[in-house]
Amino acid sequence: MKTSADAVRDYLSAVEREASALPAERRQELLADLAEHIEVTRAERPDIALGEILAGLGDPRTIATTALAEAGVGATGVPVKDVDGAPVRRGKVHPLVPLLMLTLSLPFMMVFHELPGPAFGVLFRIVGAVLLCTSVHWTTVQKTSGVLLTAVLPSAVFATANLSGTGPATGTPALLANLTVFALLAATAVWLWRARRV
Fold first, then answer.
1. How many C-beta atoms surround the C-beta of residue 100 within 10 A?
2. Domain range summary for the chain, segments of one domain joined by +
3. Which of 86, 58, 75, 81 lies closest to 22, judged by CA?
4. Separation of alpha carbons 24 and 156, rounded Å
5. Residue 99, CB half-sphere, CA atoms under 13 Å: how many?
6. Which of 2, 126, 128, 140 could join 6 via S-S bond, C-beta 3.0 to 4.6 A?
7. What does the pLDDT look like over 79-129, one tens digit per residue?
8. How many whole angstroms separate alpha carbon 194 and alpha carbon 137?
9. In this predicted model, which residue has the larger pLDDT, 152 or 83?
10. Is the pLDDT of residue 138 over 60?
11. CA dist 10 to 41, 54, 64, Å?
């Protein structure tokens, strides 16, 4: 029968195997961080089963892929290079940057209705979506959901309202519509912040 120590050892071995392309020092640091996290969580929350703790950490392959991407190393162990031959560094943008850009794009457009305000708001939204999509802090599903909820959906709603002429032009209806969209942007940003990989 497997003990909890065996389950932890198997999990860490799987992460080590998947992250074999990482430099040895970085790989040992990753394993030590995971082991410490497991230990601390078990001490603080004895009511949670070990399987839940390990599942909460994520799949060993996903953890290794993220660590490799942050280290700028490909799965083969060869440093990833850009077109100029310089090592690619990923994950250097703080996860708060794309979330703030996506959330604040609407208030920026509302406050500065005269040009160049709307243009900068759209630029904020596009750059925020690109930074979100290229970040190593979220899974593909989280990135897709985030872009759909913070960039595509609000843009589609506003474009449809403006083109059909049925959208509220001014006053309380326009303010309520804008506040609703802003609440959606803020709620999505909070969800992404809480769901990010640390």
1. 14
2. 4-71, 96-195
3. 75
4. 48
5. 18
6. 2
7. 444 444 444 444 567 888 999 888 888 877 777 766 665 777 788 888 988
8. 11
9. 152
10. yes
11. 18, 11, 15
